[in-house]
Amino acid sequence: MITFVAMSHFISHKGFHWEYETYGSGSEVLLAFHGFGNHGSDFKVFEPSLGKKYTILSFNLPYHGNSFMDETVADKSISKETLKELFQHLFIQHHITRFSLMGYSLGGKIVLQLIQLFPEQVDAVFLFAPDGIRGNWSNGFVIGNRLGEKIYQRIIDDPSRFLRFVRVLKEMNMVHEKLSDFLHQSLETREKRQKVWDVWICFRHIKPGIQKIQEIINREKISLHLFFGKHDLIIPPSIGEQFVKNIDQEKCLHIVDTGHVMIREKMNDYLTKLFPW
Fold first, then answer.
1. Could you tell me if 199 and 74 are in contact, meaning their C-beta atoms sit under 8 angstroms apart?
2. pLDDT band at 60 (very low <50, low <70, confident <90, very high)
3. CA-based nearest residue to 129, from 246, 254, 274, 30
4. Could you give the angle at the alpha carbon of 44 between the alpha carbons of 64 and 193, nearest 5°?
5. Which of 154, 179, 197, 203 suits 162 as a labelling partner, its CA being 20 to 30 A distant?
6. Is pLDDT larger for residue 165 or for residue 198?
């Protein structure tokens, strides 16, 4: 059994320093990754349902919590190789040979990439409204070419024109009200707009190969649990339905009566019934 002191820790490599906290007391290790604008401590709510089986190592992604980069880091984008080396340090430090993964929204993209990087060491995967299964065209446009970068830099300086455009689309019923509200909340302050840019740049090289990941899950018999909110307009259940068509497991897709926000206490009832450990 692996024992962690209940406090904040860091893993560090090549100037990247990721903070993590630990929850639960189980004999198995579960690495958890939050969504954009959230915090690693969010996963503490799952202690009642997952904490007896797992010791949860919940990470703060770059630009969140106390995670940071050295000022000497010239390229703020983390490569797949650096991501792999970062977690190899963690595994060596704590003698971890096998582990499970949990991710919500943006954190789902990190989980998918780690499956591809450590295919023979993953036992189970819990994904909540995961990013990374389907390509994000807006992300790709902004960070993939100079025009997209210039447009978003203007939005950082002044989002009013873009938000007026979103408002018009909403009035024309081309954008749902909840999605419009989400965009307004994400861009309401300059700090938030800059954070979106910084995080996009940081993870621009993290592009999971979905077909390869599906093959790994099937070949290694990784236990998969996909959770989607029935009313989620950001990452809808249809993405999960398409993904599981190529997965050789029954009942791995769970559509829950909620929206995009899924990491909350009431999910414990669902998880406890699903996993009566």
1. no
2. very high
3. 254
4. 25
5. 203
6. 198
Helices (H), 10-52: 47-50
Of residues 215, 217, 205, 197, the one with CA closest to residue 83: 205
Pairing of strands 122-128, 99-104: parallel
Closest of 152, 193, 162, 176 to residue 36, by C-alpha = 193
Q: CATH assignment of 9-133+208-274, given 3.30.250.10, 3.40.50.300, 3.40.50.150, 3.40.50.1820?
A: 3.40.50.1820
Selection from 119, 82, 102 nearest residue 213 by Cα: 119
**What's at 123, amino acid-wise?**
D
Cα distances from 3 to residues 7, 132, 183, in angstroms, run 12, 32, 41
- The amino acid at 39: H
Q: How far apart are CA 151 and CA 249, in angstroms?
A: 43
Q: Is the pLDDT higher at 272 or at 152?
A: 272
Nearest-angstrom CA–CA distance, 61 and 38: 9
Question: The tokens of 19 are what?
Answer: 């903070």
How does residue 170 score in pLDDT terms, banded at 50, 70 and 90?
confident
> Which tens digit of pLDDT belongs to each residue from 82-104?
999 999 999 999 999 999 999 99
User: Strand, coil or helix: what is 178?
Assistant: helix
CA 201, CA 143: separation in Å to the nearest integer?
7
Under 8 Å between Cβ of 30 and 99 = yes
Q: Where in the chain is the domain with CATH 3.40.50.1820?
A: 9-133+208-274
CA distances from 130 to 74, 108, 125, 146 (A): 29, 4, 11, 28
Q: CA-CA distance, 261 to 129, in Å (whole number)?
A: 9
